[in-house]
């Protein structure tokens, strides 16, 4: 379970409303604060808000290039450059996996994902920042 005394904010970048809702539900019930945004809105990096998430989960977008550009943007943005990025991909998206990792993603999670695997990945990346 997430610890309440440390920044436990997870940014979910997902255009599919059902997947965003599911991630929000699963993560929130474990005590994480979830901010879900649609990647079609280019304001996904909000340095001015003073909020730097502890983890970013990027959803299964159809465009390999857009994901790679978003990851590169995050990696070149002040306080956000060291935030772990977990990318959701389907098992048939080998090119997306490779490009995401080359752009700076920390890990990949296959969709459909198992809830236990999701939580293990999230906890592993949250702990690695202490």
Can you give keywords for this protein?
130 residues, alpha/beta, five-stranded parallel beta sheet, 4 helices, 36% helix, 19% strand, globular
How many structural domains? 1
- Name the beta content range: 15-25%
Total helical segments: 4
Low-confidence spans: 1-6
The helix/strand order is EHEEHEHEH
**CATH class categorisation:** Alpha Beta
* Sheet with the most strands: spatial strand order: 2-1-3-4-5
CATH level-four homologous superfamily name: Response regulator
What is the tally of beta strands? 5
Global outline: globular
CATH architecture descriptor text: 3-Layer(aba) Sandwich
Mean pLDDT across every amino acid position: 82
Q: Remind me, CATH topology?
A: Rossmann fold
What's the Cα radius of gyration? 13 Å
**Percent helix:** 25-40%
Per-chain topology:
Blueprint: E1 9-13, H1 17-28, E2 33-37, E3 55-58, H2 64-75, E4 85-90, H3 94-103, E5 107-111, H4 115-127
Parallel strand pairs: 1-2, 1-3, 3-4, 4-5
